[in-house]
Amino acid sequence: MGTVSDELPDETLLAGLGAGDADLALAFVRRFQRIVFGVAITVIGNPAAAEDVAQQTFEQAWRHAQVYDSRRGSVRTWLTTIAHNLAVDVLRARTSAPVDPDDLPALLTAVTDTPERVAVANDRASGLRRQLGRLPAPQARAVAMAGIYGMTARQIADTEGVPLGTAKTRIRDGMQKLRAAYLPENVDDE
Amino acid sequence: MSEVNEMGCAEFADAAAELALGVLTGRERARALAHLDQCEACRENVRQLTVTGEELVGLLPAIEPPAGFETRVMERLGLGTPAPIPAPIPAPGLARQLSPARRSGRKLADWIGGGWTGRGGVSHPRRILAAAAVAVAVIAGGLGGWGLHGTTSSPTASALSSATLLTASHQTAGKIYLYNAGSRWLYMSVNIPSGSGAADNGTVLCQVEGPDGHITTVGSFRLTGGYGYWGSPDPVTNGPLTGARLITTTGTVLATATFPA
What we know:
heterodimer, A: mainly alpha, Rna Polymerase Sigma Factor, Chain: A, Arc Repressor Mutant, subunit A, 2 domains, B: alpha+beta, Immunoglobulin-like, 8 strands, 24% strand
């Protein structure tokens, strides 16, 4: 079913993309287009704008393939970070209300419960997913609004109708719990 | 030297998550960055929160893009049919300036510098790579390497053969791929078993063997913790390759591979 390119490591496909090899570039796009578009459409909501962000993401990867540094994370993480940054930029430029609070439960459900992703997730990602599902709802919402939609504590406070200090505490506490789940060997500080 | 508005570790800890997620703004952000500049412990704290935040984004569901997406991307890159166009290669010195993440100015990972660890990297240091350094080393070495040559590959009839790199004690040390798509490409991925010593951290050479037994050095790259990878258009264009080997700069053979006939 798969092609020979499917066997190549992510880094190899990225190198081929950067070098302008059409076959490897196409294989790279096919491998990552769903996750890149998923990030863009989830953050932005508008399919046309999301496609533009997804295309820009691959263009950025193509232009900057040579500066990808795997010490900083996997190709997938690098790519989703690019997509996320671009999407949040679009969101911030477009509106002062980046997210409808009514959309958050569906997002959190998608992030914590998707069976397909649970099945393929590595242990760390599974731990992160489980911990996100266990967070008190206000913390999970605050983490999603800040971490997914790029909302500031002030925006979160206004959206949730809580004091600024409360919003900041929710972000802090929620992220510390997620870090403890994702990087359990590092939970010694603070 | 201290200033009235200097931020201490306790106050920083309250803002660290927001900083890591790129949502801290204005004066508070400036003060936090000033504190980070002088506090190693807080840098590590933010690095971990940054990695966690990136993984949070990675949990978002994958969604099929609209039909024709990949074609439009390829056209945008100038890689669609009929004639592929070689990608512009940014000079290594522009790396910091051009980095997408850096340019966005939100994620702190670059700013913190040297501290990113990929998925699994924290507990598996052998997976830590130096991909950018590899590319630069290959280019600087003048031995070929991606980015130096345009490609005339056509999106037809892909073909890939691969061979496992084995050490003298028959331990798997990686894999080499020979990719035929109009032009030929070589890719080598190395993960030398720990304890083999010789080149856990250092420059190694990739050599290929032609059908006449002639051995050609086609590239060099650096291993970090025994791990590294490298790729290049294949400079040995006549006839099939029969094998490849990985050697140290002093000529010690670390591993060999034989391509299937």
